[in-house]
Amino acid sequence: MSTYTEDQRKVTTRRLAEMKQRGEKIAMLTAYDYSMAKLIDEAGMDVILVGDSASNVMAGNVTTLPMTLDQMIYHATSVVKGVKRALVVADLPFGTYQGNSKEALASAIRMMKESSAEAVKIEGGSEIRESIERILCAGIPVMGHLGLTPQSINKFGSYAVRAKEEAEAAKLLEDAKLLEELGCFAIVLEKIPAQLASKVAKELTIPVIGIGAGGGVDGQVLVMHDMLGINKGFSPRFLRRYADLSTLINDAVARYVDDVKTCDFPSEKEQY
Ligand code: KIV
Description:
Layout lengths: L12 H9 L4 E5 L3 H9 L4 E4 L3 H4 L11 H14 L4 E5 L9 H15 L3 E3 L7 H9 L4 E6 L5 H4 L9 H17 L3 E5 L3 H10 L4 E4 L7 E4 L1 H4 L17 H17 L11
Parallel strand pairs: 1-2, 1-8, 2-3, 3-4, 4-5, 5-6, 6-7, 7-8
Helix pairs in contact: 2-4, 4-5, 5-6, 8-9
């Protein structure tokens, strides 16, 4: 049971800023459906991210690129229904905001109108500046995402740690400052050196949430399937597993199969 569940007030972008100011860490986790979102919210999560990692863990794709806006809206709509307290942020998927800011705004508006998510997250820095500005103009809160940005996997060529070299680190810091200046309410830093992430968090007034970015940032985010041990094939160094659900589910399902085959289920008490 979380020790932080007493505060039942709704989490807003403003409350996240206050948390950073008073040095309270922000807990963020992904969810993609109603039932899990409800459990995660009840456990005291601050931010629930409807990540386009749904492409990997829900749809079985190798990358996040195939995800469509309709699919993300479907997941976000289900999550929102299960959440009372956490701030719900939804990823805009690949191809729905890059290159054309009018399309970016239309995508963000569809997400907000159809799913009732409370903010959108988009990947990139100066190259998507116009999209961020236009979305913010409509009063839609934007969370940035820098470092390893999985929608650019074909440009990077691998999921290795980003911004290890000085030039890339300098560009990341510059981009982070730009995102703050434009009005993003928070940013995610994925898989970058801890020292760099800590520097970014210190230099920015908006919350910086890390995944594989060390402990010097303002909060942490993980993919739910990874931290619950549903997705056992993925074990990067930054991941801490809090459960072994794949074993638990496997055992339970195998026992059910066995009970059906041996006519142990249903018993007299389990029928009408
Ligand atoms: O899609 C996702 O789950 C994410 C997190 C890894 C931050 O963007």
